[in-house]
Specification:
Layout (H helix, E strand, L loop, with lengths): L4 E4 L12 E5 L2 E5 L21 H9 L22 E2 L3 E6 L7 E6 L3 E3 L2 E3 L6 H18 L8 E3 L20 E5 L8
């Protein structure tokens, strides 16, 4: 945020000045122009313009319960949709025809990647969390004051017109159907 300095555990300017107030939030201080020094219920970088916490809005909108899972982690998919393109954590399938046109199915697995290495121990439901976060941001971008178009068609596997031979249960919550798009390399 422009004009806002972050400091931890008293590191930084020790006292507020006439033009700069600070608020302590769980060992995290935000300095900048403020009307009061009352503690924020949530750090400002996690709140939107209406003061609603982005994390709280995400959890409410997508009913994501961060609880322990008794499901086996999904480390690899082998769907009867042709050969997948496997990334570090996602398996992608090319789909053509059907009512969605030229599309791709992106399945977020529970594989872990760090420093471009796939680690041996998966995290159950990690793919579901990644998909929920992506869906939240695509939805938010498309509903903002200046809506931004994106490639996401749906995250509802029942609406993806997949063949009857595909078991939908392991795909629920971790799959996105997207329009095929040209990749813009950022790295």
């Amino acid at each position: 945020m422009p004009g806002v300095n972050v400091r931890r555990d008293g590191v930084g300017s020790p006292e507020p000045t006439a033009d700069r107030e600070h608020t302590q939030v769980e060992n995290l201080c935000y300095e900048g122009p403020r009307a009061s020094c009352t503690p924020d219920p949530m750090p400002r970088f996690l709140a939107d313009a209406n003061g609603v916490g982005i994390l709280a809005a995400f959890l409410a909108a997508y009913n994501t319960h961060m609880t322990a899972s008794h499901r086996d982690p999904v480390v690899r998919t082998d769907l009867p949709l042709g050969p997948p393109i496997r990334g570090k954590v996602r398996d992608c399938y090319s789909l053509s025809g059907g009512r969605h046109g030229d599309a791709m199915l992106i399945v977020s697995t529970d594989r872990i990647s760090a420093f471009d290495w796939i680690l041996p121990t998966p995290i159950p439901d990690k793919g579901r969390v990644l998909t929920a976060i992506s869906a939240f941001w695509f939805d938010l971008l498309s509903r903002g004051p200046s809506p931004i178009a994106h490639h996401l068609l749906t995250t509802d596997v029942d609406d993806m017109d997949l063949p009857a031979s595909v078991d939908l249960e392991p795909l629920r919550g971790r799959t996105m159907l997207v329009k095929r798009a040209e990749v813009i390399p950022f790295e």
